[in-house]
Design brief:
alpha/beta, Rossmann fold, 8 strands, 317 residues
Length: 317
């Protein structure tokens, strides 16, 4: 939702609010079973995507993972394309075939998402290598969760990117959960940023609920990358408020305590940035975003279903 009337901190607030309101709308609609794609909601983590994308240019490339709605929207992805994909319609950004975990909008440098844990990290390294070969100044970003750190692709990608000093930024959203497994049960220590030392690249940890801190860390990493100084690993400590997949919550599932979730809700990234905008701006943003969501949902509901035009080889006789 480009907004020329806002700038700087107010624009960051608007981006986070838009992500939150879109995700809340999806959470409300999802139980009606109109959206059949498995969906991993981003509520609580908005400052990470908003802050990182606030430091990028339109032509810079971003490749995310399955919890990707916020990244898609922060990079400028079409809301019509997102809602169309959630409903599985031809107006979806993947033609209705990909669903929530396979979003793409190449026009704004959002080069796709992967449902495979750590699957998109090497893709960002690949686009960074292509930029280096072609002499472009574009920066690539790989966004992933803390569970991806346990995958081989994470280590292989950091090693290769460091060796070649590629213009790529690795952003780990450490929400301390991988599906139903807490961080303490999966890693000997939870300091993801320390992994950078093994590859002789900078590792930075920031408060992932502080959008200005995230933007500042991303801006430094972007400057390094454009200057030919190689990759950076940024660990953003944050928390998802809802369950791993779906609109429910982990408290109801017995995985997390209500007190823990309450502590994170008290650190809401949007509430902490509320002073970035005036009361009038807040009302205008709410009204505009609400209408945009209603229009996108209506557009998706009336759009046609995709038609299969290919046949798998095993159907041939």
């Amino acid at each position: 939702m480009p907004n020329t009337s806002l700038s700087g901190q107010a624009e960051l607030y608007a981006t986070m609010l838009r992500i939150r309101m879109v995700e809340e709308a999806i959470a409300q609609i999802y139980p009606q079973k109109e959206m059949r794609s498995p969906t991993h909601l981003y509520i609580g983590q908005e400052a990470v995507a908003a802050g990182v994308c606030g430091a990028l240019d339109r032509d810079d490339v971003l490749i995310a993972y399955y919890r990707s709605h916020g990244w898609y929207l922060a990079k400028g992805g079409s809301l019509l394309g997102l809602m169309g994909e959630m409903y599985g319609r031809v107006t979806g950004c993947s033609g209705g075939w990909g669903g929530s975990m396979h979003l793409i909008d190449r026009a704004v440098g959002f080069m796709g998402t992967s449902a495979i844990v750590a699957g998109g990290i090497s893709h960002a390294v690949g686009t960074a290598l292509a930029d280096r070969i072609l002499g472009r100044s574009t920066v690539s970003v790989a966004a992933f969760g803390d569970g991806a750190v346990e995958g081989g692709a994470f280590h292989e990608s950091l090693n290769f990117a460091a060796l070649r000093k590629l213009p790529v930024i690795f952003v780990c959203e450490n929400n301390e959960w991988a599906a139903f497994a807490p961080l303490a049960e999966r890693q000997p220590h939870g300091d993801v940023c320390l992994r950078a030392g093994a590859y002789a690249i900078p590792g930075v940890r920031v408060d992932g609920n502080d959008v200005l801190a995230v933007q500042a860390a991303a801006a430094d990493a972007v400057a390094r990358a454009r200057a030919g100084e190689g990759p950076t690993l940024i660990e953003c400590r944050t928390s998802r408020w809802l369950e791993h997949c779906g609109p429910g919550d982990d408290v109801a599932l017995g995985l997390r305590s209500a007190d823990e979730l309450a502590e994170w809700r008290a650190r809401c990234p949007i509430a902490r940035a509320r002073h970035f905008v005036t009361e009038d701006q807040t009302r205008q943003l709410h009204d505009r975003i609400r209408q945009e969501i209603e229009d996108a949902v209506a557009d998706a509901r009336r759009a046609p279903w995709p038609v299969q035009t290919w046949r798998p080889a095993y159907y041939e006789v």
